[in-house]
Write a structure and sequence with these properties.
Number of strands: 0
Order of helices and strands: HHHHHHHHH
Radius of gyration: 26 Å
Low-confidence stretches: none
Shape: rod-shaped
Number of helices: 9
Number of domains: 1
Length: 270
């Protein structure tokens, strides 16, 4: 018998996922630096050619774009952090549900209980291993094995010996159903409920445009601070890197870890 939920969510890396996280940050830093320099040089040329030193319209537009960039960045970062917190919560719940099902296995006949506990242990071990995976193919293999384990647990629950135990079967099946539903929700949160790539591209493009106009405004006024501009660009690039890394199923900076799952495994003993 198969698990009730046959949905199997796999990793399908997007274009931006294939770029090393350090390259994302460095690339954005270079693009923003070029944009602000081009804007500054263009502003100086306009000021010299037209004999103008003040362009209130350009300054106002630049300020508005910077404000819009800040709003979009804050909103996107909050969305990424909310997803990160949801993943941590679902991971904790998953480990506790596995522990509960392990305990419910004691209600089954001895051989079924032993098989169930072994599968649950393997499930938690594969779960912990999946968190450490930095390769899409390896993680997909772990996801497939996890579903196979759930199917094997359903086979135990549907066996004639277990079904004949009226007092044990409903509790065991309810515990297994809760585990599978939570695991499906966890996979969806990790692999499907991601920021649309177009939002990340739009955020980067908006930043390039905003700092370009900032450089233009500085050029029109004939003054700028390279240090301040560099610090601003570096800070924004760092924030963008954090957003991208939080959104990735395979992370470099933010490790979810699995302390609860490891603690549950330790509680099982040998």
């Amino acid at each position: 018998m198969k698990a009730e939920n046959d949905t199997l969510i796999m990793i399908v890396p997007s274009t931006i996922d294939s770029i090393p996280i350090w390259a994302v940050g460095l690339g954005l830093f270079v693009m923003l630096s070029i944009s602000i320099e081009v804007g500054f040089q263009l502003g100086r040329r306009i000021a010299v050619d037209q004999g103008l030193s003040k362009h209130p319209v350009e300054a106002a537009v630049s300020t508005a774009l910077l404000g819009l960039m800040a709003f979009m960045t804050a909103f996107t970062f909050n969305s990424a952090m909310t997803r990160h917190a949801e993943l941590r919560h679902l991971g904790t719940v998953d480990a506790k549900l596995a522990q509960k099902l392990h305990n419910l296995s004691d209600l089954l006949p001895v051989d079924n209980a032993s098989a169930s506990k072994g599968l649950i242990r393997e499930y938690l071990q594969s779960r912990s291993a999946a968190i450490e995976r930095q390769n899409a193919d390896e993680l997909n293999a772990v996801i497939v094995r996890s579903r196979e384990i759930q199917d094997d647990l359903w086979a135990i629950a549907s066996s004639e010996r277990v079904r004949g135990m009226k007092n044990a079967t409903p509790h065991y099946i309810n515990g297994l159903t809760a585990l599978i539903e939570n695991d499906t929700a966890r996979q969806a949160a990790a692999l499907s409920n991601r920021l649309p790539a177009v939002i990340l591209y739009a955020l980067g493009s908006l930043a390039v445009l905003a700092v370009g106009l900032l450089g233009l405004s500085s050029g029109l006024h004939g003054r700028r601070s390279r240090l301040v501009a560099t610090v601003f660009i570096a800070a924004y690039s760092m924030i963008f890197v954090l957003i991208v890394d939080l959104d990735r199923p395979l992370r470099s900076l933010f490790k979810l870890g699995d302390p609860v799952g490891e603690g549950v495994l330790d509680s099982f003993g040998e």
